[in-house]
Design a protein that fits this description.
It is a single chain. By secondary structure, the protein is an alpha/beta fold. The chain folds into 2 domains: 194 residues, 2-enoyl-CoA Hydratase, Chain A, domain 1, CATH 3.90.226; 48 residues, Lyase 2-enoyl-coa Hydratase, Chain  A, domain 2. Helix content is 48%, strand content 14%. The chain contains 11 helices and 9 strands. Strand 2, helix 1 and strand 3 form a beta-alpha-beta unit. 38% of the residues are buried. The N terminus is likely disordered. May play a role in fatty acid biosynthesis and insulin sensitivity. GO terms for molecular function: hydro-lyase activity. Pfam families: ECH_1.
Length: 273
């Protein structure tokens, strides 16, 4: 897969492990899971590295959108099962799953929208990561599954994100059978936004990321936060909550600028205020 070409100074390897590579292009940050020999398995160190990068990004005013992708032949094969078998201590396993949950929630809570770019496979916790991202585009030959049931380890934590991204029946089908589904079906059930030919994947993701990043960063933060706050509320409570958000949003300088630009038929100039 072709790496995104940056017109800025190279910003890779911001963590000292090399497990996550970062490259910035304009206001988009590309994070690459970098353990290709193990299909970017989510070892404890890998997840801690992702959390470190997300914490940095949350404080970076120059970044308006984030892309998460994988190196090598696939996006992510899920947890590092060899590591977990080699560490039977309950405390280690508790830390592993707690760190995984923290990483998934950090994706959802990040102020910038996060886009998953999927090629090859996204299985188990890798599928969970796709479901946790705000948007997702996959190559047409990408495949997805939650196969834990096949090895005696039900994908209970992947189920949390999966069941919130797709219908209950499709989530249960994936969880109970462990079967792979293709990218077109994943798009059909809402796990991803769309699939594109593999040679167009980089361009499609970059175009989407740049489109999102062109909006007011303050409005993106406000909207993403409100989306996840209201999604599980009762209908009346959700409307009350989002009405308050709209009133607050109307007071933003970026809202005034956006409306004035629309009326004046000119591009808006965002200030993030």
């Amino acid at each position: 897969m072709t790496e995104p070409q940056s017109n800025q100074v190279d910003a890779e390897s911001l963590d000292n492990t090399g497990l996550v590579l970062r490259q910035d292009e304009d206001s988009v940050a590309f994070l690459t899971l970098n353990l290709p020999g193990a299909y970017n398995a989510l070892s404890l160190a890998m997840m801690e590295a992702v959390l470190q990068e997300l914490a940095r990004l949350d404080q970076d005013p120059g970044i308006a959108a984030v892309v998460i992708k994988g190196s090598g032949k696939g996006f992510c094969a899920g947890h590092d099962l060899k590591e977990m078998r080699a560490n039977p201590d309950v405390a280690f396993r508790e830390k592993t799953f707690a760190t995984c949950s923290a990483m998934m929630m950090a994706v959802t809570q990040l102020r910038q929208p996060v886009i998953a770019q999927i090629h090859g496979i996204a299985t188990a916790a890798g599928c969970q990561l796709v479901a946790s991202c705000d948007l997702a585009i996959a190559a047409t030959d990408a495949r997805f599954s939650t196969p834990g049931v096949n090895i005696g380890l039900f994908c209970s934590t992947p189920m949390v994100a999966l069941s919130r991204a797709v219908s209950r029946k499709k989530a249960m089908e994936m969880l109970l059978t462990g079967d792979m589904i293709g990218a077109p079906e994943a798009a059909g059930i809402g796990l991803i936004n769309k699939s594109v030919p593999s040679d167009l994947l980089d361009r499609a993701v970059k175009e989407l990321a740049q489109k999102v990043a062109s909006k007011s960063p303050l409005v993106l933060k406000t909207g993403k936060e409100a989306f996840y706050q209201q999604i599980d509320m009762p209908l009346a409570q959700a409307y009350d909550h989002c009405s308050r958000i709209m009133v607050e949003n109307m007071a933003f300088k970026d809202a005034e600028e956006g409306i004035d630009a629309f009326i004046g038929k000119r591009p808006p100039v965002w200030k993030g205020e």
